[in-house]
Amino acid sequence: MSIWLIINDMDNEYLKKFAQHLKKIRKEKNIKQDDFLDVEGISRSTIAMVETAKTDITLSKLKIIADVLGVNLKELLDFD
């Protein structure tokens, strides 16, 4: 197996873990994906793609998501 495949598999697993964590926090806070419609820089489709591990996301967008969820960025990233 090539190094690229190993790293890609690790990235996918990491994204999946983060996706599950983000969705869990959002549901615990009773926030719907549609609640992101009026948030600048974040769309409902962005949240959906992140929560299904179909895309990666920038740090600045993670900060916006954390603010909407009412958590600090450290809590959002604490999923290992």
Topology:
Elements: H1 3-28, H2 44-51, H3 59-69, H4 73-77
**What sort of overall outline do the alpha carbons produce when their principal axes are compared?**
globular
**Terminal CA distance:** 25 Å
The residue ranges in which pLDDT falls below 50 over 5 or more consecutive positions are 3-7
Task: List the domain count as a whole number.
Answer: 1
Count of individual helical segments: 4
CATH architecture: Orthogonal Bundle
Largest sheet: none
CATH superfamily: lambda repressor-like DNA-binding domains
Helix percent band: 55-70%
User: Compute the gyration radius: what is it?
Assistant: 13 Å
Element pattern in H and E: HHHH
What's the count of strands?
Answer: 0
CATH topology: 434 Repressor (Amino-terminal Domain)
Give the C-level CATH assignment: Mainly Alpha
What's the mean pLDDT score? 86
